[in-house]
């Protein structure tokens, strides 16, 4: 806070007037008899904790991936994925065990492949219903619309440090991957953990 300010512009609390004081200068903070603990400090264009950045300054953008049957990235209805995954999984299980009760000859690999595919669709429908957002492949993600649509999208934003474009990726060790916004110019240092709830819902 500036010395002439009586209230904090962030929280609205009254400035304490005691022997401890905090003053700010050009991209610097000077403390006298005070200690700053458990706080996130923003001085100029430096953020001490990238995960506390206000999403409003990032200019988050959603890009729909063009598909042969839809230019707006709509894959299908989530309810259709649920039905297809459910009935396809049941049919695959029946196909796997049917030869044990009949004399028909079959290829089990075909039914196992089908079971994996339909179970993936079933799980996708549940994930979209609960979280409305999940990673798919590369830079692409699946998102649920406000009604019943399932969309294939990409997410970008503006880097708060250098102004370059940031792209949403799935990064981290195999057992602990996270949705991370990485800067195209300096991805090793300019990165932010992505919060999908900061994006507005897809209005259908």
**Rg calc:** 25 Å
- Give the oligomeric state: single chain
Average pLDDT rating: 83
Beta strand count: 12
Please give the count of helices.
2
Which structural class best describes the helix and strand composition?
Answer: alpha+beta
How would you describe the shape? elongated
What is the helix/strand order?
EEEEEEHHEEEEEE
Q: Flag low-confidence runs.
A: none
Bin the strand percentage: 25-35%
Major sheet characteristics: 8 strands, antiparallel
Share of helical residues: 10-25%
- Give the distance, in angstroms, between the N- and C-terminal Cα atoms: 44 Å
What's a concise summary of this model?
The protein is α+β, with helices and mostly antiparallel strands and 204 residues long.
Task: Provide a descriptive summary of the structure in words.
By secondary structure, the chain is α+β, with helices and mostly antiparallel strands. It is 22% helix and 28% strand. It has helices at 78-97, 108-131; strands spanning 21-25, 28-32, 42-43, 46-47, 61-64, 74-77, 133-137, 140-144, 149-158, 165-171, 178-183, 191-193. Strands 5, 6, 7, 8, 9, 10, 11 and 12 form an eight-stranded antiparallel sheet that branches. Strands 1-2 form a two-stranded antiparallel ribbon. Strand 8 and strand 9 (149-158) form a beta hairpin. Helix 1 packs antiparallel against helix 2. The radius of gyration is 25 Å and the shape is elongated. The mean pLDDT is 83.
Secondary structure layout:
Elements: E1 21-25, E2 28-32, E3 42-43, E4 46-47, E5 61-64, E6 74-77, H1 78-97, H2 108-131, E7 133-137, E8 140-144, E9 149-158, E10 165-171, E11 178-183, E12 191-193
Antiparallel strand pairs: 1-2, 3-4, 5-9, 6-9, 7-8, 8-9, 9-10, 10-11, 11-12
């Amino acid at each position: 806070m500036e010395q002439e300010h009586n209230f904090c512009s962030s929280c609205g609390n009254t400035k304490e007037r005691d022997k401890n004081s905090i003053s700010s200068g050009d991209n610097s903070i000077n403390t006298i008899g005070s200690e700053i603990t458990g706080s996130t400090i923003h001085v100029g264009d430096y953020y001490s904790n990238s995960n506390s950045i206000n999403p409003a300054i990032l200019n988050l953008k959603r890009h729909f991936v063009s598909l042969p049957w839809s230019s707006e990235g709509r894959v299908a209805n989530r309810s259709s994925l649920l039905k297809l995954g459910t009935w396809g999984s049941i049919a695959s299980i029946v196909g796997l065990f049917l030869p044990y009760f009949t004399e028909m000859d079959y290829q089990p690999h075909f039914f196992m492949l089908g079971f994996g595919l339909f179970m993936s669709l079933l799980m996708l429908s549940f994930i979209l219903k609960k979280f409305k957002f999940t990673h798919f492949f590369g830079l692409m993600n699946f998102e649920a619309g406000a009604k019943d649509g399932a969309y294939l999208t990409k997410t970008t934003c503006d880097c708060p440090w250098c102004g370059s474009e940031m792209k949403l990726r799935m990064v981290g060790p195999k057992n602990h991957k996270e949705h991370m916004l990485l800067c195209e110019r300096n991805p090793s240092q300019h990165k932010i953990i992505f919060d999908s709830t900061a994006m507005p819902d897809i209005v259908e």
